[in-house]
Amino acid sequence: MDFLLGLFSRLTGNEELARILFISVIGFSTVLAVIAVMLLVLGLQDPVQRRLALIKRGHLGNAVGQEAPGNLQLLLERVGQRFASAESTKTSVTRTLLMHAGYRSSSAVQMYWAVRLMLPLLLIGLVLLLLPFIPKVSLMIGLLLVLMASGIGWLLPALYVSKRKEARQNRLRVAFPDALDLMVVCVESGLALPTTIERVAEEMSVSHVELAEELAQVNAQIRAGITSTEALKQLAVRTGLDDVQGLVSLLAQSIRFGTSVADTLRIYADEFRDRRTQAAEEAGAKIGTKLIFPLIFCLWPSFFLVAIGPALIGVFRAFG
C-alpha cells in the first residue's frame, strides 16, 4: 500500500491529493468488483437462470454421458458473451481457429474471449502485488511492467491456441497417408464409400485418434442424411488441411461424374506419396543451411580452442 501511495504521490506531486485519489480508486474498484461478482454468482445460482444458460449452450440435462458444466464454466461463458465481438466475420474466424485446434463446443468462442479478457486482469493484479517487493522501482518501470503483463495476458491464449492448432494439423497430416491407403484397400475390395469411411475410422481409433474421430463424424453425418460430398467438404473445413481439401475435390468430382472411386483414391495416393517424397527431399536439402549456425557458434570455437589453444599458451609464455 505504501508503495502504491508513493507512486500516486510522485504522479500528482501532492501527498494529500495522492491519499484522496488512492482511497477513491481503491474504494471504487472494490465496490465494482463486489457488485460484479455478486451479480454473476447470484445469477448462476438461480435455478431458472442456470437452466436458461444450459439451454442456450445446447446442454440437455437428461442426455446420457453428459456432465452439467460448473458455475465457473458458465461464468466464463457469460463474460465471453458480454465482450465477444459482434462482427460475424471475426466470430467466424475465431470459431474456425478454435475448430482447427480441436475446440468444437458451442461455447468455445465465449470461453476463448473470456480467458483473453480475464487473464490480463489477473496478471496485472499479480504485478501490482509484487511491485512493493521489488526495490527501487520507478513509476515508468512500474507502468512498463503493468503494460507487459497485460500484453502477455492478451497474447498468451492466442499463441497457445495457434500452437495447439499446428500440433493437431501435424498429427492429422501424419495420419492421413495411412488412412488413404486403408481407404484404397477397402474400396477396391468392394465396400461403398460410407462403409469404407466407417471401417477406416474403426481401424485407426487406436493409432490415430483424432483422424478417427473426424472420419467417424463424417460417417455420422452421412447416416443423418447429409450427402457424402457435403460431409467431406465439412471434413476439409474442420481440419483445415490442403491435402484433405484436394481429396475432397477429387471425390466430389468422382461422385458427380460417376467415375470409379477406387481409381480416384489410387491416383491421389500415388500423388500424395510423390508429394511426401518431395517434402522429404526438400527437408534434406535444407539440412546444410541449418547446420551453419551450430557449426559456426558451437563446433568451430571448440575446434579452434583444442587445435590452437596449446600453441597460443606457448606463445604467451615465450613472450610473457
Automatic annotation (TrEMBL):
Keyword Membrane part of the UniProt annotation: yes
Cellular component aspect of the GO annotation: plasma membrane
InterPro entries, alphabetized: T2SS_GspF_dom
Glycosyltransferase found in the keyword field: no
Membrane spanning residue stretches: 20-42, 113-134, 140-161, 291-316
Residue intervals of the Type II secretion system protein GspF domain: 180-307
Cellular compartment(s): Cell membrane
UniProt cross-references to Pfam families, sorted A to Z: T2SSF
UniProtKB keywords: Cell membrane, Membrane, Transmembrane, Transmembrane helix
Predominant localisation class: membrane
Protein name listed in UniProt: Type II secretion system protein GspF domain-containing protein
